[in-house]
Every structure is written in structure tokens, then in C-alpha cells.
Known about the structure:
By secondary structure, the chain is α/β, with parallel strands linked by helices.
Amino acid sequence: MKILIVEDEQKLSKNIKKYLMEENYVCECAYTFEEAMEKISLYDYDCILLDLMLAGQDGLRILHELKYMKKEGNVIIISAKGSLQDKLQGLEIGADDYLIKPFHLSELSMRIYALLRRRNFDNNNVLNAGEITIQLLLKEVIVKDKKVSLTKSEYDLLIYLVSNKNRVISKAALAEHLSGDMADILANHDFVYAHVKNLKSKLTAAQCPNYIKNIYGMGYKWEVQ
């Protein structure tokens, strides 16, 4: 899962990034309005953490721009502005949640988890995909009552494919999801093939049917008959 942290307090931003990366999220930081808009226009994010008081700019403008670009959704406002009016205005424009500074990073993590679960998995903590059971809170993958050990990238890949079932996902989209804006400077996306191959191998070893279909020249699709 890929998260953009829009926060001009660099120390706080880096602390949030470090904590969430330890929770197996892919994180990027934007410290200014301009940097945030550039990233949002180029990439898609599963969740955006948005400070309302950016240097010289109102973070609510970013919510307006997200709505204009039809990229609204999965936004959590993190701000010292705690008035009811600020909160209501942000929620009315398109934010999904509001967390007032200072906050515990563990609470932020749970807010992100709850938001993604609500948006992508119908509020379920357990995701069933064919013969695979995914314990989202524990980040465990089980096939036929046996736990399958996956790397962070393999787990992220599985969740992304399952949440986009029956849709063809390009290699470029998978590369961006797994590595963030680093995907732009990589010579190729061969690492995506390697992760897909390893994931399929581990699921096959657990006697799981092959749900990951290679769509020649286009990408991959999660397909359960």
C-alpha cells in the first residue's frame, strides 16, 4: 500500500514515514504545496496524509485539486487546526478522516488501516480470495489452513492484485505501487516479474490454484473462476 505524506514539518514527516515503513507501507513525502501537487498529478496513492497548514498555502486547496482531478478519496487530514469548522470543511470537500496534532503514530496507523479496510475490503479484517484467506490485521496469508510466508513486496503485490480482481494491471502500475516514485528511475520493471514469479511459486507450493494470469503484452490479472 502506497502513502503520500504531505507535511512541511520535516522531522514529523520523516518520523511518520519511518514508522509506517516499519508497518510495511510504501511511503513518500512532500514538504510543499507544489511538491505535493506534482506527486499527486504523476502518481496514484492508496492514502494521502494531508497537513492543512503548509508553508504559504492552505492544504484545503489540495483537496479541491484532488476533487477536480477525480482522485479524491482515502485522505486523512493531520493538522494542529482543531476547530470544528476546519474539520467539517475538510470532510465536506472530500477528506475521509481528521486527526488533530499531536497524535500517537500507532493511532495514525490504525486510522489508515481502518480507512483502507473500509474503502477496499468492505470493512472486513479477513479477505477471502478463492482458496486464499488473508488476515489483514495480522498480515498473514493462509492456504488450506497453512500459513504462507511472503516478503513485504510479495504481500503488497498479492493485496493489490486481489483488490483489483478481474482487472488487467500493467507492469508499470505494479512497479509504481511496489516502489513508489523510484519506479521512474529504474532501467526496467523486471523486478515486477521476479516478484510475481516468486509469489506464484509460493502459492503453487501451498497447492493453491493459479489465480494470477499473465496477459501478454499488457500485464497481470487476478482471476478466480
